[in-house]
């Protein structure tokens, strides 16, 4: 038996709006330069990915992506500076929670390995 800590953020109504899925989606947008390509790389419907991003933006109060209209190089999306900062802070918090969980585990389950 071992701990598996998952960190999710909830809005004021208790509805989850951010966790590992949206975190991975933002990283995929950063890598691919496109929400559509990011969703496809995660085998997620574009409409679901768009909904995740919009819901998080609504709760956070700032845009996570900047959309670029097509042209010579085609359209796409990039993360905003606020999104990069939020992503960094979320990952730092998530990692700290996981580390704390690992340190606390032996205190509560001393006979488990």
Topology overview:
Layout: E1 9-10, E2 16-18, H1 20-32, H2 35-41, H3 46-60, E3 65-68, E4 76-79, H4 81-108
Helix pairs in contact: 1-2, 2-3
Describe the structure using short key phrases:
113 residues, mainly alpha, Arc Repressor Mutant, subunit A, 4 helices, 4 strands, 56% helix, elongated
Structural commentary:
The protein has a single domain, classed as Arc Repressor Mutant, subunit A (Orthogonal Bundle). Helix content is 56%, strand content 12%. The chain contains four helices and four strands. The strands form two sheets. The protein has a two-stranded antiparallel sheet with strand order 1-2. A two-stranded antiparallel ribbon has the order 3-4. The radius of gyration is 17 Å and the shape is elongated. The model has no long low-confidence stretch (mean pLDDT 93). This is HTH lysR-type domain-containing protein. Residues 24-83 form the HTH lysR-type domain.
Any idea how many domains? 1
CATH architecture assignment name: Orthogonal Bundle
Give the termini distance in whole angstroms.
Answer: 7 Å
What is the CA-based Rg, rounded? Answer: 17 Å
The profile of the biggest β sheet is: 2 strands, antiparallel
Query: In CATH, what is the homologous superfamily?
Result: Winged helix-like DNA-binding domain superfamily/Winged helix DNA-binding domain
Number of strands: 4
The total of helices stands at: 4
Low-confidence stretches: none
- Net shape: elongated
Strand order of the largest sheet: 1-2
Assign the structural class, choosing from mainly alpha, mainly beta, alpha/beta, alpha+beta, or little secondary structure. Answer: mainly alpha
What order do the helices and strands follow? Answer: EEHHHEEH
Q: Helicity range of the residues? A: 55-70%
Which band does the percent of strand residues land in?
5-15%
Task: Find the CATH topology.
Answer: Arc Repressor Mutant, subunit A
Organism: Butyricicoccus faecihominis
InterPro entries: LysR_HTH_N (IPR000847), Molybdate_resp_trans_reg (IPR051815), WH-like_DNA-bd_sf (IPR036388), WH_DNA-bd_sf (IPR036390)
Domain HTH lysR-type: 24-83
Protein name: HTH lysR-type domain-containing protein
């Amino acid at each position: 038996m071992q701990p598996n800590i998952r960190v999710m953020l909830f809005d004021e109504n208790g509805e989850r709006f951010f966790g590992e899925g949206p975190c991975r989606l933002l990283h995929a947008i950063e890598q691919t330069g496109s929400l559509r390509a990011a969703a496809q790389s995660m085998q997620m419907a574009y409409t679901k990915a768009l909904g995740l991003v919009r819901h998080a933006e609504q709760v956070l109060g700032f845009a996570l992506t900047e959309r670029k209209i097509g042209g010579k190089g085609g359209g796409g999306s990039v993360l905003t500076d606020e999104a990069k900062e939020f992503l960094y802070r979320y990952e730092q918090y998530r990692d700290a929670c996981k580390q704390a969980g690992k340190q606390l585990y032996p205190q509560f389950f001393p006979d488990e390995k």
